[in-house]
Structure formats: structure tokens, C-alpha cells
Amino acid sequence: MTPRHCALSLVGEPIMYPEINTLVDELHKRRISTFLVTNAQFPDKIKLLKPITQLYVSVDAGTKDSLKAIDRPLFGDFWERFIDSLTALKEKHQRTVYRLTLVKGWNAEEIDAYYKLFSIGEPDFIEIKGVTYCGSTATSKLTMENVPWHADVKAFSEALSLKSQGEYEVACEHVHSCCILLAKTKKFKIDGQWYTWIDYDKFHDLVASGSTFDSKDYMAATPSWAVYGAEEGGFDPGQLRYRKERHHKSNRKESG
């Protein structure tokens, strides 16, 4: 088995690794794509980062108070670092993403505040996902009541799109992941067709060439089953899906 993709984001802050650019170079030489998520607290590191296949910043809240409550940041100037990180993202030419994690009762009502952050980083995409409950801990106050339904994530995403007045549209969804993707309309919607997918071979060829390139140079057409509102809900019909039968009752109340 030959790996083709690498997510540099599972634990901790990947851009703090002093050899991160060397690691990225080695991955790209092996034609392994890179997906890196940063917590938006190290703007200088973002500026120094070499081209990444897709670069995310975690935008966990739209206001200073909410960000402090949700992320429990280490730095006193966490908000300034956050804004500077979004500003640094704007200068990146490859695919850039704001990753929003909705926490019901904490940040799911901050439509206006989130929208104000759009113009700072001008990301290609905005990925909106419901928080995943991982159990109770001494440092986490989250419960299952804080986990939004997919309908909640859809409503939030549509409201954000409406707020942007057409700059961003809801492009894709993956129901099983409780995830929605907004994309820049003028950049990734051509003649009514979305191009939110990645041409990985083209990306690696561009990196190897040493030439300057941007996210449009390695975009690919979005398959019909991944487009927002498709009957498949983001599931690849070419793959086999296994469904788990649940026999216990849920105490959660679904929205709507």
C-alpha cells in the first residue's frame, strides 16, 4: 500500500515543528499531498510555510470571548494572534480554508461575527462541521446536547452564504460527517459547475516545476454526488456503505 495523502493536524500544532517545511518537501517529492490545520496562533509560522495542498485555519469562534471560552488559549494576546493568522492566510496562493466547528449553545449563533472574519483571510473555502462529542473530561464541559444535528449545520451554512451576498455559496455536503462546504463562487463555480475537487497529479507537477501557481491551477470538477443537495448526500456511490443498527433510544431532540 502506497500512501497518497498526509494530514498534518491530528494532535497539537504542526507548524511549531521547526522542520515542517522540510517535511512538506519530502512528502511532495513522494507525490504525497498535504493537508495542514493550524490553530491560528502562530501568524509568523504561517507566513514562512511552503505551499500546502490545502491549508486550514481553525476558526472556532467569531468573537474574542467565545474563542477564549472554547479554545482556552495559552497566550494573553490570543485574539491578536488569531486575526494576524487570518491576515497571513490571505497571502497564501494555494487552497485555503476556514474550518468552523459548531458547538450548540456556544458559537452556533454567531453568524454576523463569523461573516466579519471572511474579509480578513478571504479563504477559498469555509468548512463547517458539527462538533464531535468525545466523552466528558475534567477540562471539557461539552455534552451531547452541544452536538448539532446536520439540519443545524445546514441552516447555519445557508445563513452564512446568504450573509455573504453571493460571494460564497454552499457547494458540497457530507451528511455522515455532519459537514458542509462553502466555496468562493466566482473562483470555483464555472458555467454552473462546481470545481471544488483537487487534481493531485497537477498539484505535484506544479510543485516539482518550481513555478508560481494558485488554487485554480489544480482544481477539478466536483462529482455530482458530492454537490450540495444531491440525493447521495456526499456518499460516493462507488463505495460500499455499512449501516449500524441502533436498538437504544436517544434522549436528544432533533431540530425542526
TrEMBL record:
SUPFAM superfamilies: Radical SAM enzymes
Signal peptide (from-to): none
Keyword set includes tRNA processing: yes
Residue ranges constituting the tRNA wybutosine-synthesis domain according to the UniProt record: 121-184
Cofactor(s) in the UniProt record: [4Fe-4S] cluster
Residues covered by the Radical SAM core domain: 10-117
One GO MF term attached to the UniProt entry: 4 iron, 4 sulfur cluster binding
Gene3D superfamilies: Aldolase class I
Domain of life assignment: Eukaryota
Catalysed reaction equations from the record: N(1)-methylguanosine(37) in tRNA(Phe) + pyruvate + S-adenosyl-L-methionine = 4-demethylwyosine(37) in tRNA(Phe) + 5'-deoxyadenosine + L-methionine + CO2 + H2O
Ranges annotated as biased composition (Basic residues): 241-256
Pfam assignment, any one: Wyosine_form
Keywords: 4Fe-4S, Iron, Iron-sulfur, Lyase, Metal-binding, S-adenosyl-L-methionine, tRNA processing
Stretches the record annotates as Disordered: 232-256
InterPro entries xrefs: Aldolase_TIM, rSAM, rSAM_sf, tRNA_wybutosine-synth, tRNA_wybutosine-synthase
Single biological process term from Gene Ontology: tRNA processing
PANTHER family: S-ADENOSYL-L-METHIONINE-DEPENDENT TRNA 4-DEMETHYLWYOSINE SYNTHASE, S-ADENOSYL-L-METHIONINE-DEPENDENT TRNA 4-DEMETHYLWYOSINE SYNTHASE TYW1-RELATED
The name this protein goes by in its record: tRNA wybutosine-synthesizing-like protein
UniProt gene name: 25482134
